[in-house]
Amino acid sequence: LQESESENKLDGETASDSESKSEFGGSSTVPTSDDTPEVLNRALSNLSSRWKNWWVRGILTLAMITFFFIIIYLGPMVLMTIVMCVQIKCFHEIITIGYNVYHSYDLPWFRTLSWYFLLCVNYFFYGETVTDYFFTLVQREEPLRILSKYHRFISFALYLTGFCMFVLSLVKKHYRLQFYMFGWTHVTLLIVVTQSHLIIHNLFEGMIWFIVPISCVICNDIMAYMFGFFFGRTPLIKLSPKKTWEGFIGGFFSTVLFGLLLSYVMSGYRCFTCPVEFNNDTNSFTVDCEPSELFQLQEYNIPVVLQSVVGWKTVRMYPFQIHSIALSTFASLIGPFGGFFASGFKRAFKIKDFANTIPGHGGIMDRFDCQYLMATFVNVYIASFIRGPNPSKLIQQFLTLRPDQQLHIFNTLKAHLVDRGILGSLEDA
């Protein structure tokens, strides 16, 4: 009995967990199967399971990277659509786990309400984005203008409808379970929908703020796996027994170097560095601008200590490369904790992967657990250190005001510029 209890504790399950499991009905194990294509199974049949998994992961990783390059080439609209599809699939995988674990009571409206709340949250977030980035277009169309004006009230009314439906669906003897699943749905929405929305905001700041962070996470994941596979000896964390210190450290240095090189290449192209803006004349997205100082080569002095090592006194690089060091460091040191969090979640419910969508990799959520954490960091980083007032958005809002309001702002601004001596100097010139 003592051995059995100790095994349960090693798995992270306590007595209270066991009681909850019996109350909620049945075992919490959600089996997943490996859907490796038959062609790969035959080609790799002579290899050990370790090397077979290495080849399957490698081939599928190359396929996903190729797909990533294709959607980047197709432009921002396709990227936003893909982000939306990934968000929905991740939500589906997490909600399905909850449904499979606690399905025995056949809770009324659980799945319907979960998807309804997903619709409400997306309507709120994407409505805010449309109003912010497509302000002129929204003001030009009467239905859109009305929806924009009362957007938050409509969003709140939609959520209240779902809230009332949940209260009406409560069933005697299952109150605790139903509130548990209500919380499950809302935490899933917080993790998946909110952070996928931040990814789209990063994309509007410039494709480089979308591609470099995501690529750094991908690079760290690949290089940590490679270093761990060939050199790994020292376990890193109990939540992920296969993770090693060798893989963690090797992934860090590889990712920082990769981030510097990728940033250098991308900083020279306007299509990556310019903010994604909506052109009202052509009703399409544009990525053309005069590059900011972040993306203009500058000369930096190398510290004296390193001059004798590298043999240079100065180096020419883009300022964005310095920011890329912060991004790649976060992707290497903090980003993996998103994966550890997901590992703890899966261990809690005794499942190997969130789903079996991608052979050798698991579900979509298994590939994006670190990406969502990275997206939040990038958004906070841009807001804290990069983004400033946007003149084009201010002008768009100014033009929608009444004539008397526009004149008031004009006179106020004119008086301010005259007091500072700016307007007079401009007139003399």
UniProtKB/TrEMBL annotation:
Keywords noted in UniProt: Lipid biosynthesis, Lipid metabolism, Membrane, Nucleotidyltransferase, Phospholipid biosynthesis, Phospholipid metabolism, Transferase, Transmembrane, Transmembrane helix
Enzyme Commission numbers on file: 2.7.7.41
Region described as Disordered: 1-35
Any GO BP annotation: CDP-diacylglycerol biosynthetic process
Localization, UniProt: Membrane
Transmembrane domains' residue ranges: 109-126, 153-171, 178-200, 206-232, 244-266, 320-342
Membrane topology: Multi-pass membrane protein
Main subcellular location of this protein, as a coarse class: membrane
Pfam families xrefs: CTP_transf_1
Catalytic activity: 1-octadecanoyl-2-(9Z,12Z-octadecadienoyl)-sn-glycero-3-phosphate + CTP + H(+) = 1-octadecanoyl-2-(9Z,12Z-octadecadienoyl)-sn-glycero-3-cytidine-5'-diphosphate + diphosphate; 1-octadecanoyl-2-(9Z-octadecenoyl)-sn-glycero-3-phosphate + CTP + H(+) = 1-octadecanoyl-2-(9Z-octadecenoyl)-sn-glycero-3-cytidine-5'-diphosphate + diphosphate; 1-hexadecanoyl-2-(5Z,8Z,11Z,14Z-eicosatetraenoyl)-sn-glycero-3-phosphate + CTP + H(+) = 1-hexadecanoyl-2-(5Z,8Z,11Z,14Z-eicosatetraenoyl)-sn-glycero-3-cytidine-5'-diphosphate + diphosphate; 1,2-di-(5Z,8Z,11Z,14Z)-eicosatetraenoyl-sn-glycero-3-phosphate + CTP + H(+) = 1,2-di-(5Z,8Z,11Z,14Z-eicosatetraenoyl)-sn-glycero-3-cytidine-5'-diphosphate + diphosphate
Domain of life: Eukaryota
GO molecular function: phosphatidate cytidylyltransferase activity
InterPro entries hit by this protein: PC_trans (IPR000374), PC_Trfase_euk (IPR016720)
Biased composition (Basic and acidic residues): 1-22
Compositionally biased intervals (Polar residues): 25-34
PROSITE patterns registered for this protein in UniProt: CDS
Family designation: Belongs to the CDS family.
Protein name per its UniProtKB record: Phosphatidate cytidylyltransferase
